[in-house]
Amino acid sequence: MIDPDNLKYTRDHEWIALEGEVGTIGITDFAQKELGDIVFVELMQAGTVVTAGKEMGTVESVKAVSEVYSPVNGTLEESNGDLSSKPELINQDPYGRGWMVRVRLSDPAQVARLMDQSSYEAYLKQEASGQ
Amino acid sequence: MTAPRLLPLHDRHQSIGARFMEFAGWQMPLQYSGILAEHGAVRQAAGLFDVSHMGEVGVRGPSAGEFLQRMTMNDILALEDGKAQYSGLLTAQGTLLDDLIVYRVGNADYRLVVNASRVSIAFEWLREQARGAVEVTDRSAGMALLAIQGPEAASILAKVCTESLALRPFRHAVLRVAGVDSRVARTGYTGEDGFEIFVPADAATTVWDGLLEAGREDGLRPAGLGARETLRLEAGLLLYGQDIDETTTPLEAGLDRFVALDKGEFIGREVLLRQRQGGLTRRLRGFEMEEAGIARTGYGVWAGEERVGTVTSGGFAPTLRKSVGLVYLPCEMRERTIQVEIRARRAAARLMSLPFYRRKISQARLG
Could you tell me the domains of chain A? Predict the structure, then answer.
């Protein structure tokens, strides 16, 4: 299981766990709670070139549609096939069985520029107080 | 923009963990435990909704019945004391100014429950049109409206009512609910058996708490606007402002059985008569997605290479576990499949008759 302490986070509420040159990506617990019951997930196919900050899939809850953005540049290697029949895995286990894609990074150093756990938590607090 | 209004039970909703959304100028509970869980509770057990944002207009006086016969599309003469009917206020063009439920309390005393977004428009229209011995009053302030819906609703309500619950569908009566005199109607907006309970706002907490406590062991859950939306869409019930508005007539919307064209003169009748005699060009249809994807309100609808309409209401139907929607389509269209434009692609959908979901009659426990 992935330890949220060792993840990196984006301002759009995606997380990435890097192992070598391959990053596993999903959406954060905060994001899944905001969306509510997730009922449909659409992800780009293996082989697709993804760009940091650009859309690489869509998550739909009962209430809303939300784009998922890639935290990094690279090539999509695999997407989580379980999500097509069980999209609720994202609600139940956002950092585990609810992972979305694995991406081979073209520049692994990019990850260092993302937020760590404590900065992401500070960011969430700041967002909440700004509302 | 002014700040949204708070429901009489706002603090209660907040204390049990509701998430809120703004709707028609009100801060409404969107969900408590989650839309799917709340939807499921209403289909399988029961849900409790706070719908106090709805408006209530009183129409009283010796000419009240005659007045409403001219103002509404359904037949007021079909009502008797203690009966309610679904109806609509029409413009002179035959389009819907609002859809509503008319409750007859006495032969000179009617109550109309109108949409939150249309309270002032409906009220002003009625007051402007009132002639003779009719008094139109906005009774929305001070009124709370709770809805308990689902197969267990009747047995739960019976636990907190002193009188026996002999109400049939679309009947109403004043009953003592959790010690509070309330008007109880066997109506709803979910496709399930259920009741709507009119309570003085200052006693709403007592009734809300009493019902939740009584239903604790029967699976009763508080339910928000999110579940109300998925439930009504599955049941093929229309939402004013999306499926119907001042650009649509009740015949186009498929509300034919609530339009009494032969009752005599009423506002909008001439246009509807012409439509009935072959002038209908479009009609509201239901569809379910055949390909993956969720049809959302506002998405474009295509038949081959022709753009034929826009989804008026669309979303995920939890009971059917697929996406459904409503769309106005040309009457002459013979295709049975359409394509819904979901972001960059067009996904196939199949036209089907409404409602998408119909409860089994055996599930309704008739008091």
Answer: 4-130 (2.40.50.100)
